[in-house]
Design goal:
The protein is an alpha+beta fold and about 120 residues long. The protein has a single domain, classed as Translation Initiation Factor IF3, CATH 3.30.110.70. It is built from 2 helices and 5 strands, in the order αβββαββ. It has a 5-stranded mixed sheet. It is elongated. It starts with a helix and ends with a strand.
Length: about 120
């Protein structure tokens, strides 16, 4: 009985680790403010109609298995944690190297309104 509980516990911990470690890794460099609960999302700087300053920059680990929607959702959450008022996605591309056939690269700026 003890052995089966130990196996079950090990399996559950392994699955938990697997599911929490999956997904894109987001790298943020910049200032931090109190967390935001809601932010605006932009895909072009021309769409931002208010004065702002860039408080940070983000990118993801370049993994070919990253799904753009997952990267977007993780970046929005990270922008909220940094206290941003909005996020501007600045670049989406595929980085091809000799080692990797194609890695998704997403870049974004986290902004804070100045007005």
């Amino acid at each position: 009985m003890k052995k089966s509980r130990l196996i079950y516990l090990s399996l559950m911990l392994s699955l938990m680790f697997l599911f929490t470690s999956c997904g894109p890794t987001i790298h943020y460099l910049g200032e931090s403010y109190p967390p935001s609960t809601d932010i605006e999302v932009f895909y072009d700087v021309k769409d931002v109609k208010r004065d702002y300053k860039v408080i940070g920059k983000m990118t993801n680990d370049e993994l070919s298995s990253d799904i753009p929607e997952q990267v977007r959702a993780q970046m929005v959450e990270r922008a909220k944690q940094a206290g941003g008022d909005a996020i501007i996605f600045t670049d989406l591309g595929v980085d091809r190297t000799e080692v990797n056939s194609g890695s998704l690269v997403v870049k974004a700026n986290v902004i804070k309104y100045t007005e």
